[in-house]
Write a structure and sequence with these properties.
Blueprint: E1 2-7, E2 11-18, E3 21-27, H1 33-46, E4 51-54, H2 59-66, E5 70-71, E6 77-78, E7 86-93, H3 116-120, H4 139-144, H5 166-170, E8 181-187, H6 189-197, H7 206-215, H8 224-237
Parallel strand pairs: 2-8
Antiparallel strand pairs: 1-7, 2-3, 4-7, 5-6
């Protein structure tokens, strides 16, 4: 098996036009899986090897056990040179494996005496006593699940189109990567309305599909209209 950590920017500042006003919100950005796959396929096929994408695997656990990454207290994986701003991909391959690296689960040494993410978690999902978060309180989980937000969740905690960036942007292990920010992605008034409508991805205009793909919105489209409405409301009230 071939396991990869593919870097991506920390986030994007995305502009949405709505009722002739411009609003800027943060969004995560996808790793370039397509370019990575194309490079691997072309390179390895020239050497006589083959690749088949491996899906539905516990990627974080595999990355940590193989030594590619370590767990942070926030239950996110960190890899050298990327911090936590990465995506994991796996392939089955006939490449010869000369050694077998497999270790116990590793926790980041930097987390041992650090509680920065615990203090900055907007919902108290990160625990002081162990490297296991309270999933049902995690804003990432809530932001990516469709339906009404729970009554206990303050609207003021919302800051991204999906997921959550609070612990990652404050983490000392990300200090060399947090300034890798994408600018220039803009949704026109019409494109904003497409997203707010809850329309299915296959009906999006091609330009809107490209932006949704770049930001990784496609996996969470059922929740995006709700999240956007909350972000607009917060901006209009400030």
């Amino acid at each position: 098996m071939l396991l990869l950590a593919i870097p991506h920017p920390a986030y994007a500042n995305v502009v949405f036009e709505k009722q002739r006003k411009a609003y800027t919100f943060q969004s995560l950005v996808m790793s370039d899986f397509m370019r990575t796959d194309q490079y691997l396929q072309e390179t390895l096929s020239s050497l006589g090897y083959h690749l088949v994408s491996a899906v539905d695997l516990p990627m974080k656990r595999l990355a940590v056990r193989s030594g590619l990454a370590v767990y942070g207290r926030n239950n996110i994986t960190y890899s050298e040179g990327m911090g936590s701003f990465l995506s994991l991909a796996a392939y089955f391959s006939d490449i010869p494996c000369e050694s077998e690296d497999w270790s116990e689960i590793r926790l980041a040494k930097a987390c041992t005496n650090c509680q920065i993410c615990t203090k900055n978690c907007p919902t108290g999902a990160i625990r002081k006593e162990r490297f296991l978060i309270h999933n049902e309180r995690c804003l990432s989980y809530l932001n990516e699940s469709p339906g009404e937000f729970p009554a206990w969740l303050p609207e003021t905690v919302h800051h991204t189109l999906y997921d959550c960036l609070r612990c990652q942007l404050k983490c000392p292990m990300n200090k060399d990567h947090v300034n890798q920010v994408i600018e220039g992605i803009r949704f026109s008034e019409n494109e904003t309305q497409w997203l707010l409508s809850g329309c299915a991805y296959q009906y999006f205009p091609s330009a809107l599909q490209e932006k949704a793909d770049q930001l990784g919105l496609t996996d969470w489209l059922p929740a995006i209209p709700r999240n956007l409405k909350v972000l607009f409301k917060l901006s209009e009230n400030n």
